[in-house]
């Protein structure tokens, strides 16, 4: 950790916002940022009330913020609104009605463009389709889909009628579907026959068929025809999307919902136990994603915006769909892999649709850099005016590559720090106002009051690392963990209960200009390619194999993925394991969780290093996985022999 800090403190490069960009930016001067930031902290009622007033409300709120029952904050209490209305209907009474809302490209190269008016029709049909299947306000709808327009339509249809969607990333396995669907008691699953990924069909329906019988609450499965793959349709349970939509009314007014009515659940990994169902609510999330999109991406009426995330993660929820459409912008959606058919696919898309704003992840940037400068160089990328990154710390080399090869040294880069829990971007530079510093996220967005504190809650000086906390609530914050208020309080609010601060779980430090540099997770969470995975989940998956007695999973630095997964596995006494068993275990984890959780390394060992009280010494394993000499105190280690043995194995 300390090496990394020194490294970044030595980073002296600052990139001023280009004059041409700054002169037209929505927030164009530092004074304006300072004034609005001050207002947002000193008088959040006025600041957030003003932002919310830019959107449509069936009934205005009585109270902007209610902090009476901490940490169960409420925002825009008494207000009635609808996020689907704000993303779609709100744009129909102006020239925007014929503007492209979604430009979609499938991996095979097929294309769909939906204007706001067309999107409205499709969302109304889907909402009526869901109603026809018996879905009501408050019901949970699981969505397990490829990146196709119907995914966005399904979300907006749920939001329209007040059904709570729970999107499950299409790369997760049937077991992961079961866990999530059962946890939320979903009544309906929306899926597709398949999706295209790297030239092959991902059999989504097959996974749903495996999962659904284990989920007694699931009454209906709605299936979009995407790949024309042969699928079995269970009588009475499964329905083709196009058939249902052909049989319903085209008119479906948006339901006026309470600002605090839940909007969606999205599962994310924690240090312990099963994934946590992050619950977001309607009004605050809407206002937060709207205003961050507006100012951080500096959205202009004529912009074409592309975020390359999958909607299965929060980035896609907030910054492909909700925040972007709430602004009436054009959002590009791409189904497939970045290197299909070749490593230039993204640049081809940027060139083809003249994308102006491009938002991706450091892991992708490192892959592009590795694939070579010649790929973006073939394309006209002059339409780009702003770049963004999200998901993990970006190393300055990757930042510079992005700046040179994609931004062609003309485009500001926003490095946006946030979390599934925060709903919207929290720390970033504002592109027209602040210099960017490679590797550093920047300053707090409006209404965000972060701090870096010690374990005891004392402020930490610039240049020293500590725990990143947020001292005041913000509108798009999670409201709870679905069905588990106690865990919500425990995970996020118990550490600094007295002070009422939100614990992010990240370590960070500030430079002398107040720029935040995020170091990474402090808990047992690994950030693989910008996706959060709990070591516990992977360990449980491993232990469910007969080849495994005990497992300890740790992250290690990985050139492309940011962090890789290393599993130390002890085998049952007397069992002989071979190299081939490593692959078996990797496949086993993929089957239990999904390919994303496959360990990069598996190391068999007779036993795991433990303290005398029986705790696995993870930090020590982390050092071994990273190939570092252990600086750790090993005096409490139970059996010194283990350490030497693990090292030998690592070197062999
Ligand atoms: C964790 C949240 C937010 C959408 C994608 C990930 C890390 C996120 C940055 C950034 C350094 C970052 C943090 C955070 N992270 N953005 N710009 N710089 N680290 O959402 O799965 O909820 O993960 O991702 O560690 O806590 P998530």
Key terms for this structure?
652 residues, seven-stranded mixed beta sheet, 32% helix, 32 strands, binds 5'-O-[(S)-butoxy(hydroxy)phosphoryl]adenosine
Describe this structure in words.
It is built from 21 helices and 32 strands. The relative contact order is 0.10. The mean pLDDT is 94. The chain is α/β, with parallel strands linked by helices and 652 residues long. The strands form nine sheets. It has an eight-stranded mixed beta sheet with strand order 12-11-8-6-7-14-15-25, sandwiched between helices. It has a seven-stranded mixed beta sheet with strand order 5-4-17-16-18-19-20, with helices on both faces. Strands 23-24-26-27 form a four-stranded antiparallel beta sheet. Helix content is 32%, strand content 22%. β6, α7 (149-161) and β7 (164-167) form a beta-alpha-beta unit. Among the domains are: 87-104 and 112-264, ANL, N-terminal domain (Rossmann fold), CATH 3.40.50; 525-651, ANL, C-terminal domain (GMP Synthetase, Chain A, domain 3), CATH 3.30.300.30. Bound molecules: 5'-O-[(S)-butoxy(hydroxy)phosphoryl]adenosine (WT7).
Quick synopsis:
By secondary structure, the chain is an alpha/beta fold. Helix content is 32%, strand content 22%.
Layout of strands and helices, then pairs:
Blueprint: H1 2-9, H2 19-22, H3 30-42, H4 44-52, E1 63-66, E2 74-77, E3 80-81, H5 83-87, E4 100-105, E5 111-115, H6 116-132, E6 140-143, H7 149-161, E7 164-167, H8 174-184, E8 188-192, E9 195-197, E10 200-202, H9 204-211, E11 220-224, E12 238-240, H10 241-246, E13 257-258, E14 262-268, E15 276-281, H11 282-296, E16 304-307, H12 314-326, E17 330-334, H13 345-353, E18 357-360, H14 362-371, H15 374-377, E19 386-390, H16 396-406, E20 413-416, E21 427-428, E22 443-444, E23 450-453, E24 466-470, E25 480-481, H17 485-493, E26 502-510, E27 516-521, E28 525-528, E29 531-534, H18 535-543, E30 550-558, E31 562-570, H19 579-592, E32 601-605, H20 618-626, H21 640-651
Parallel strand pairs: 4-17, 6-7, 6-8, 7-14, 8-11, 11-12, 16-17, 16-18, 18-19, 19-20, 31-32
Antiparallel strand pairs: 1-2, 3-13, 4-5, 9-10, 14-15, 15-25, 21-22, 23-24, 24-26, 26-27, 28-29, 30-31
Helix pairs in contact: 3-4, 6-7, 8-9, 11-12, 14-16
The structure holds 5'-O-[(S)-butoxy(hydroxy)phosphoryl]adenosine.
5'-O-[(S)-butoxy(hydroxy)phosphoryl]adenosine (WT7) binds at residues 268, 313-315, 390-393, 415-420, 441, 504-506, 518, 520-521, 527, 530-532.
